[in-house]
């Protein structure tokens, strides 16, 4: 199973726009907030693994 890292760019009602931080991409991913941890805010760092999003600290679990 692969692991991806995202940053919450903005929150718009029931959805959040995420930007990948582990790969070069300007494209945003629109995700329903029901799939994200309830504590998210703009700038929150997330890890997506095993079909779940998890809040991480900026230096945690990041590939070097």
Topology summary:
Blueprint: E1 3-12, E2 15-20, E3 28-32, E4 45-49, E5 52-56
Antiparallel strand pairs: 1-2, 1-4, 2-3, 4-5
Number of strands: 5
Number of helices, where a helix is a run of at least 4 consecutive DSSP H or I residues: 0
Q: What percentage of the residues does DSSP assign to strands (E)?
A: over 45%
Mean pLDDT: 92
Alpha carbon gyration radius:
11 Å
> What topology, given as strand order, has the largest sheet?
3-2-1-4-5
Could you state the order of secondary-structure elements as H and E?
EEEEE
Distance between the termini: 19 Å
Poorly predicted segments: none
Percent helix range: under 10%
Shape: globular
Q: Outline the biggest β-sheet.
A: 5 strands, antiparallel
* Class derived from helix and strand content: mainly beta
Protein model, in words:
The chain is 0% helix and 48% strand. It is built from no helices and five strands. Strands 3-2-1-4-5 form a five-stranded antiparallel β-sheet, with no helix packed on it. Strand 4 (45-49) and strand 5 (52-56) form a beta hairpin. It is globular and about 30 Å long. The two termini are 19 Å apart. The mean pLDDT is 92.
Q: How would you describe this structure in keywords?
A:
mainly beta, 5-stranded antiparallel β-sheet, 5 strands
How would you briefly describe this protein structure?
This protein is an all-beta fold.
């Amino acid at each position: 199973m692969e692991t991806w890292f995202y940053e919450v760019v903005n929150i718009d009602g029931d959805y959040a726009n995420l930007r990948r931080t582990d790969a070069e991409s300007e494209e945003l991913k629109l995700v329903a907030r029901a799939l994200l941890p309830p504590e998210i805010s703009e700038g929150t760092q997330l890890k997506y693994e095993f079909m779940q999003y998890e809040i991480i600290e900026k230096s945690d679990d990041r590939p070097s």
